[in-house]
Design a protein that fits this description.
Number of strands: 9
Shape: globular
Radius of gyration: 18 Å
Helix content: 25-40%
Number of domains: 1
CATH superfamily: GHMP Kinase, N-terminal domain
Distance between the termini: 37 Å
Number of helices: 6
Order of helices and strands: EEEEHHHEHEEHEEH
CATH architecture: 2-Layer Sandwich
CATH topology: Ribosomal Protein S5, domain 2
Structural class: alpha+beta
Length: 237
């Protein structure tokens, strides 16, 4: 039995509320169970120096956790004076995941920055950030298309992410914190809407795993991504 009482292949409740901030070109608040992330997308008429003059667009991301997004207060990274290694790793993951679903030629020479701020954490914050980040990105791109700045949709596919793992010896979908902290195997699966894989992060936290078990986790991840993509498309409709 899972601590939440969910079935092995059951996602936490997912909701995506759009237009939650006034100034950002695209924004949403994604809730995956008790993990809540505010995602905003900002369009800028510039690109990093390494692609300037190439005609290619760029999508990047920043990620952070508010001090009381967890059970005890965390110090703001700004107060420490630098980002932690986990933060840097996650925001790079978000950026390259979102870029996998973008036609950068169609986007044109501009940059969209997706900011993901964790309001409340209960496991799977990077997956929620990627999933909600795509919604914010899509809303921003829709504005570019409405104004005629972009002719064809540069977003070739939705991008969504979900965690899966081995908990109490069984493959489970969408780990919350009690499961994540006790899981023998923990994985994050990032996919396009057609289930083409972008990235898989798998690690043995307390036990090794077999090829059959990994296949079970991939099957669960595909089911989860299907549900997340449906929620994304409903949010941007």
């Amino acid at each position: 039995m899972r601590p939440s009482g969910r079935q092995l292949n059951e996602m936490r409740p997912v909701s995506i509320e759009t237009g939650v901030t006034k100034h950002a070109e695209g924004s949403c608040l994604i809730r995956m169970g008790d993990t809540h992330v505010l995602c905003t997308a900002t369009i800028e008429d510039r690109v990093p120096p390494f692609i300037k003059g190439s005609g290619l667009g760029w999508v990047t991301a920043e990620y952070g956790m508010l001090p009381r997004s967890t059970t005890s207060r965390m110090r703001r990274e700004a107060a420490v004076g630098k980002q932690g290694g986990r933060t840097v790793e996650i925001q790079r993951l978000i950026g390259r995941s979102l870029r996998a679903g973008v036609d950068r030629v169609a986007l044109g020479e501009r940059q969209i920055t997706v900011d993901c701020d964790v309001i409340q954490a209960d496991g799977g914050t990077r997956c929620a950030s990627i999933t909600g980040g795509w919604v914010a990105l899509k809303l921003a791109v829709n504005k570019l298309m409405k104004t005629g700045d972009v002719i064809s949709d540069p977003l070739v596919s939705p991008v969504a992410a979900v965690s899966c793992g081995i908990y109490a010896g069984q493959a489970v979908l969408d780990l919350d914190y009690p499961e994540d902290s006790e899981a023998g195997v923990d994985g994050n699966f990032i996919m396009l809407g057609n289930k083409q894989m972008i990235e898989v992060q798998m690690s043995a936290e307390g036990s090794t795993y077999s090829r059959d078990q990994m296949n079970q986790l991939i099957d669960l991840a595909e089911k989860g991504v299907d549900e997340l993509v449906a929620a994304q498309m409903a949010a941007v409709a």
